[in-house]
Design the sequence.
């Protein structure tokens, strides 16, 4: 159970790590002239290239972590919905009781 407690943090950190790895590779390719870049526009291009390459890699490699994160978020949403429904039921009961007292 403890491996799934920080699923969102784990997924995000792995996703950032994959992006940074792709960024490092693209910067190295730009530095050694494999990818021709010039000036700040070239660096922006390399950052965009790293994002474009890292997205499908993350999608394929991190599917298990994404599923765990989704399950964790869904459980929290269900807890909040149940709590809200219970509070609404209590408010409705109090409202009905107040109307019954006022009606007498």
Sequence:
């Amino acid at each position: 159970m403890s491996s799934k407690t920080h699923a969102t943090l784990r997924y995000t950190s792995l996703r950032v790590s994959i992006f940074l790895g792709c960024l490092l590779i693209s910067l190295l390719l730009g530095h050694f002239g494999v990818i021709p870049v010039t000036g700040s526009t070239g660096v922006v291009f390399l950052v965009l290239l790293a994002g474009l390459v890292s997205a499908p890699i993350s999608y394929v490699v991190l599917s298990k972590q994404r599923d765990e994160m989704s399950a964790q978020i869904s459980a929290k949403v269900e807890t909040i919905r149940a709590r809200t429904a219970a509070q609404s039921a209590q408010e409705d009961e109090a409202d009905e009781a107040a109307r019954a007292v006022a009606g007498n």
Summary: Residues 11 and 62 are 7 Å apart (CA to CA). The chain has three helices and no strands. The chain has a mean pLDDT of 90.
